[in-house]
């Protein structure tokens, strides 16, 4: 039987296989053809498992025989395979065992075909690592697919696979979902596994899940990934229902929804990003929900700074761990200059500053919990700007000279004493200031593909729910998926 592979989502392909309308081998071969067709232009897949022969194909599981890609990230390690995290410094590293996340993915019956590109150590909202080169957006290859799960987003968007692994420590699921016209759900902290080598990732800010085109694929995968990981530092509120069932279950109630289009750090928001939210609010109001324009009751500047202090500290710790892996001290030339600079800033961050930053997270968590007593959901743009052009955000001229100079001389402490941190925070987050809040509070949040710019680039709208309420997000997303705003078209990858 001939079939149109890209017409089906993951569950649709699984049903075809179950009904014996196609074989798992035919589905996998169709996926491989799509990867080979598009990857030379997009650079989404940087490690192809099928080049060593046909990967193992499972006959059991909810996604039995369905092709999937994983993110080239330490949380999604596959036994015996390299995991570079986008860095030349890890080019010779091979995983000793599957991560718990990958164990759960394998239990779904998915066929893992390879790994997708990420920025070095998943640190950026764009995917342009020096080691593997930039990944391009299939809607317009001159633009970024976002990051850090940019390779996964590009692969799913163009139709290489229906599902790809992703994780989100500051927007790394939601940003690429927004830029590639996908559904991206960041689960509640502790909902999906982080083990077995660590009990938390980015102090609990980072959570692993997937990127998909359909709500039901994301929901079904969350059903399979969710469990109480006893050794983990955080456990999500228990949920005994089915997320897949929630995807097709009507809400049956009126929601009170707060929204804002203002940047929490006081920076510019592009008119198209505002319009995406305003159009969505009109639709939700038409659906019968109560809409209120109101900003979240948190100090956006403090949230941003506390996020960046964690970010600095985690990079410094990551570089120290790399020394153990490589058996030698690292130098400026081992990693990208910006990564080295972030590590220096981490070394210059005191334990006191780090703890005070975590206390800001907890304060924001209680503030948002009280906020949700009156508002079921909080809505913002997913990003403050449409996708940047490839290379647009690369440091240039004097900025690049200063990064190199500070990095080579080890002047991280000098930058802090000179009061440059606030400027670094603004420069780092001004294009994507909305997503970090849910990471720090541990709340679930999703980016929903509800807007196309005049230039033909997708934009997402972000919804944040109380902790443990992924089912509410999924229910609403299931309804929005049937609306006229939902971007159901695929990119043609011709520009």
From TrEMBL:
Which PROSITE patterns does the record cross-reference, listed alphabetically?
AMIDASES (PS00571)
Q: Which domain of life is it from?
A: Bacteria
Q: Which Gene3D superfamilies match?
A: Amidase signature (AS) domain
What Pfam families does this protein map onto?
Amidase (PF01425)
Which residues, by range, are in coiled-coil regions?
Answer: none
GO molecular function terms attached to this record:
catalytic activity
Q: Which residues form the Amidase domain?
A: 26-473
What family, per the record?
Answer: Belongs to the amidase family.
Stored PANTHER family: GLUTAMYL-TRNA(GLN) AMIDOTRANSFERASE SUBUNIT A, MITOCHONDRIAL, TRANSAMIDASE
What is the protein name stated in its UniProt record? Amidase
Q: Species name for this entry? A: Bacillus mesophilus
Which lineage ranks, top first, belong to the organism behind this chain?
Bacteria, Bacillati, Bacillota, Bacilli, Bacillales
């Amino acid at each position: 039987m001939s079939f149109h592979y890209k017409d089906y989502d993951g569950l649709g392909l699984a049903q075809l296989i179950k009904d014996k309308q196609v074989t798992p081998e035919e589905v996998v071969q169709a996926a491989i053809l799509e990867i080979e067709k598009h990857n030379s232009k997009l650079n989404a897949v940087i490690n192809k498992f099928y080049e060593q022969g046909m990967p193992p194909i499972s006959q059991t599981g909810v996604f039995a025989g369905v092709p999937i890609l994983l993110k080239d990230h330490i949380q999604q390690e596959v036994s015996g395979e390299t995991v570079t995290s986008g860095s030349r410094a890890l080019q010779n590293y091979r995983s000793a065992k599957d991560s718990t996340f990958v164990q759960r993915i394998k239990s779904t019956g998915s066929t893992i075909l390879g790994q997708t590109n990420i920025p070095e150590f998943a640190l950026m909202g764009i995917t342009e690592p020096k080691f593997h080169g930039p990944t391009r957006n299939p809607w317009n290859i001159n633009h970024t697919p976002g990051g850090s799960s940019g390779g996964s987003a590009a692969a799913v968007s163009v139709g290489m696979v229906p599902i790809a692994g992703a994780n989100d420590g500051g927007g790394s699921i939601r940003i690429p979902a927004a830029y590639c016209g996908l559904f991206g759900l960041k689960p509640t902290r502790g909902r999906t596994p982080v083990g077995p080598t660590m009990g938390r990732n980015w102090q609990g800010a980072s959570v692993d899940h997937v990127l998909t085109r359909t709500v039901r694929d994301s929901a079904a995968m969350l059903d399979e990934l969710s469990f109480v990981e006893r050794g983990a530092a955080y456990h999500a509120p228990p949920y005994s229902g089915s997320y897949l069932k929630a995807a097709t279950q009507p809400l049956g109630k009126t929601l009170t929804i707060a929204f804002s289009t203002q940047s929490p750090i006081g920076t510019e928001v592009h008119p198209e990003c505002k319009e995406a939210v305003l159009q969505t609010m009109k639709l939700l109001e038409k659906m019968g929900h109560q809409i209120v324009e109101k900003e979240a009751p948190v100090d956006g500047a403090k949230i941003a700074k506390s996020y960046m202090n964690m970010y600095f500290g985690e990079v410094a710790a990551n570089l120290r761990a790399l020394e153990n892996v490589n058996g030698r001290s690292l130098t400026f030339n081992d990693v990208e200059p910006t990564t080295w600079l972030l590590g220096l800033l981490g070394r210059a961050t005191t334990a006191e500053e780090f703890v005070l930053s975590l206390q800001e997270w907890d304060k924001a968590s209680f503030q948002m919990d009280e906020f949700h007593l009156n508002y079921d959901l909080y809505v913002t743009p997913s990003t403050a700007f449409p996708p940047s052009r490839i290379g647009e955000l690369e440091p240039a001229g004097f900025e690049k000279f200063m990064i190199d100079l500070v990095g080579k001389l080890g002047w991280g402490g000098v930058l802090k004493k000179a009061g440059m941190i606030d400027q670094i925070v603004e420069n780092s987050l001004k294009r994507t200031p909305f997503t970090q809040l849910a990471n720090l509070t541990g709340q679930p949040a999703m980016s929903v593909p509800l807007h196309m710019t005049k230039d033909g680039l997708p934009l997402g709208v972000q919804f944040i729910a109380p902790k443990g309420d992924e089912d509410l997000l999924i229910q609403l997303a299931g309804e929005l998926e049937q609306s006229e705003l939902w971007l159901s078209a695929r990119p043609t990858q011709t520009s």
